[in-house]
Specification:
- This protein is α+β, with helices and mostly antiparallel strands and about 350 residues long.
- Helix content is about 40%, strand content about 15%.
- It is built from 12 helices and 9 strands.
- The strands form 4 sheets. The protein has a 3-stranded antiparallel β-sheet. The protein has a two-stranded antiparallel ribbon with strand order 1-4.
- A hairpin with a 2-residue loop joins β5 and β6 (about 140-150).
- The chain is globular.
- About 35% of the residues are buried.
């Protein structure tokens, strides 16, 4: 991901000028600077920069078409929300509405009641290992994401212990795909060091989970992408390639390709991160209002008004300016002002 003190200073100054930040002392990226952001607010700004970067990745890559057979699912996102379709759905992840549809369908794979492919997911220990929990990506934006149920492997926490002792805060990688590959490689080379399940029952559950994932991870269910590919794309888009002990990425990282294979999605994102480090590349895509919205309360804001149109669409109006519309369900990249400025 892009890390730039100069860009942070610009965004902090903009927020302060528009009264979204109070003057307080803090450090930027563990360096001594006088800035006007507390650590939690600084994290909001950094998350916004990451979202712009991830959107840049999805809009600039040439992805294979993801084909959702109509027999599996028959709705897709448009500017009017979820609409029914009468043919197979072809998704291009460079299109923002297709990304919403993709997130929606991948979330359904982890649903006990509404999975589009029950013959694969409902009887599979891997899919059954997750619950769907609502995650808020912005004050007006939500998405259900899979969270691993107990018994949890705690493999990632053990990895941090091995690498950093109890100083887990030292794990703050700029290149997230690289950190995922290193985690997967370390596990493959040192798996005997890890405690896999604390009881015989836990070990059996986890072994079934691992085995069932190995069985299906190379299956191609939606076009030319394997299930592993689809879950990696989802992890970039929704989990922002951040390793956490209970998320999807921490599990699939144990099995992901760690070599420099040009056809590997994890390698492609790793390459993209390392080739795009200059913040001036993403600066044209930064819209101040998109950042302001992350510091805005839908209930108390005097600058913005939020009006739901239906179950998926929200209208946002700043003062007396023309309102814009945004998808607020299945939206992991809340960038409504930027998306309203481009054609999708």
């Amino acid at each position: 991901m892009i890390r730039s003190e100069e860009l942070l200073d610009k965004l902090i100054a903009d927020l302060h000028f528009h009264n979204y930040l109070e003057i307080m002392g803090s450090d930027i990226m563990n360096q001594n600077h006088n800035v006007v952001a507390t650590k939690p607010k600084l994290e909001v700004i950094i998350n916004y920069i990451d979202d712009v970067f991830i959107d840049y990745f999805f809009r600039s890559q040439c992805f294979k078409i993801i084909v959702i057979p109509r027999s599996f699912y028959s709705k897709r996102y448009s500017k009017d929300g979820l609409i029914s379709v009468n043919e197979d759905i072809e998704l291009d992840l460079s299109n923002v509405y297709d990304r919403y549809t993709f997130v929606h369908i991948i979330n359904l794979l982890f649903s006990t009641y509404s999975s589009p492919i029950p013959e694969i997911s409902k009887n599979n220990s891997f899919f059954n290992a997750f619950n769907r929990e609502e995650r808020i990506f912005a004050p007006y934006c939500r998405c259900f994401t899979p969270i691993m149920e107990m018994p949890n492997t705690h493999i990632f926490e053990q990895y941090l212990d091995f690498m950093y002792g109890y100083c887990h805060s030292l794990f703050n990688p700029q290149y997230r795909a690289k950190s995922v590959r290193e985690f997967g490689l370390y596990f493959k080379e040192n798996w005997l060091k890890f405690t896999i399940g604390e009881t015989s029952y836990g070990q059996e559950v986890l072994n079934n989970r691992f085995n069932d994932y190995r069985i299906i991870k190379k299956n191609k269910i939606f076009g030319d992408y394997t299930i592993e590919d689809l879950l990696l794309l989802y992890s970039i888009l929704v989990e922002k390639m951040q390793l956490q002990d209970d998320n999807l990425l921490s599990f699939i990282s144990l099995f992901v390709e760690t070599s420099e294979n040009a056809n590997s999605l994890i390698y492609q994102f790793d390459k993209f991160e390392k080739e795009h480090t200059d913040y001036h590349e993403i600066e044209p895509f930064i819209k101040s209002n998109d950042l302001y919205l992350r510091f805005t309360s839908p209930e108390r804001s005097k600058a913005f008004k939020f009006s739901p149109i239906n179950n998926e669409i929200l209208e946002i109006q700043q003062f007396n300016y023309n309102p814009i519309r945004s998808i607020y369900s299945d939206n992991s990249l809340p960038l409504p002002y930027f998306y309203n400025s481009i054609d999708n």
